[in-house]
Amino acid sequence: MKLRLLAGLSALVAVAGLSACSSSDSADGGSGDGGRTRIDVWLMRDSVSAAFQKDFEKGFEAAHPDIDARIQIQEWDGIGEKVTAALASNDAPDVIETGNTQVAQFAQSGGLQDLTDKVDDLGGKDWLKGLAEPGAYEGKQYGIPYYAANRVVVYRTDLFEKAGIDATAIKTRDQWIAATRKLNKGKQQGIYLPGQNWYTLSGFVWDEGGDLATETGGTWKGALDTPEALRAMAFYEKLQALGKGPKDSDEAQPPQAEVMAKGQVAQVVSVPGGAAVVAQNNPELKGKLGFFPIPGKTADTPGAVFTGGSDLVIPAVSQHHDAAYAFVKELTGDAWQRKLAVAMSYVPNRTTLADAVAKDPGASAMAVGAAVGHATPNTPGWAAVEAKNPIKDYMTAVLAGGDPAREAAKASDAITSAMTSGS
Fold this sequence. Notes:
Largest sheet: 5 strands, mixed
Oligomer: single chain
Mean pLDDT: 91
């Protein structure tokens, strides 16, 4: 999935002067200067900063002097079609960064190298579930977890203090509701939660033990009409009512950071980078924004979240699988994962590396949720669901007074239909 969570939050510089061709296009048939093996790598915008890229390239060259890795920065818009075309050709790059939930779509075509036998070597037992699971398809691992990002609660520290609320003590949904109700008074909104923030709803569904869709005997079916999902929607409705968020739009329309910047919103559910956008729009709020993980049903488990992020894949048509694997292993290994997390405020790909962001308030709050993160249903047909997105329509219908069970059944049927046509 395109990492919409992070788009526009990092200032990145694309590498200039690189061809879009694979290593097979080099003049010497795949070798770089001095007989080095050349590999071409596609990384996505918002994946690395120019400084981190320069640092990594220098370190990789020192560790692998026989490999000439040439990184090209790609744009998210249209990348699905570009990758699909590359995988179907003999001109694909050797390593591609892809959104974690896109892997199944590309694996279905047979265009990716099976990396199942590399999982142990790459520390797979500690991978974040929300990156590892969508990186697998039909029991085989094709995508190697790269980095993660997820939503947290961004809150006004001054408003919480004025209301006598200790944000660090909010560990359960009930405590969150109580605090939000206390903050929701007069013109002040306890929380700004748009009616179609379906990623946030998804977390509540997973908390309840449900899912957006389920698979039985190879057949996928929408699951918003289950008791678990209906309980999740009931909680969403209760929380959404403690503010003035529109019932018929999502967090991008209008941009919720701009709404919070107006000064009358106590909380939003956002990636931590959203706080910087709030402060940019209203400098008076700089230093007055904090973060805490989305609370769970009980104090011992944080709320489930949608894990956005990326995996690295190796096209089957690559002529340099060993060199490509060396690149993937280096970038997803402990040393560079720690550096990437600090440089970009990302969550590392393994739970054992969460301490890397301990000094970053936003990223450390993300890491708590990422440990229990999920991805959307792991089927190529899910892309068609998001294209039509009946989940958004369902949420609006319920918030506008529609019967939850009836609307959930309609949405589940629409999800089933979309997955069937899109697989």
